[in-house]
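Question (not urgent): is this output format expected?
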Amino acid sequence: MTSVLVVCTGNVCRSPSAEGLLRRAFDDRLGAGGVAVTSAGTAGWEGSPPTEGSSDATAERGVDITSHRARVLTADQIDAADVVLAMAREHGEAVLDLVPDAGPRTFTMGAFATYVDGAAAPDLPSLVATAARARDAAPRDPWIDDVADPLGMPLETYRAMAAELDGLAGRIAGALATAGAGVAP
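Got this back:
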């Protein structure tokens, strides 16, 4: 099965929200279970539930993440993923510290969405390769579009994060669906 790993710091705000929103976007466009989405944190608060703000903001968008429990990022999780989507540059760097050869398939979520806009690829691994080529050819910072951390902020900040992540998830799933969306079995 094709897999996506989403990474942030504590795995209680951004990455579980992105995980839920991506899962829904893939299911809506490609059918249920076509792409496995998981998340982890570079300093994961092992076993902790999502923050109330993250749960509330994603619930307002029709996604329930309350059953999520935080996990610490491991090399095995990275190795198992077809693409790793970091919430911010430092998370991508932490991925590469654990698995240096994961560079071609590690992006910030915002950068990946940018690089796959308008791309045509038959499956997620091909889409990742297309994004890596676009990133490598781009004259700008390859870690564009960090998602701001809402931890400790008011609900409006969590809502803004959820809206941003929902938009990015839709762009990514849309690119895969538009490409003919054969997801690798």
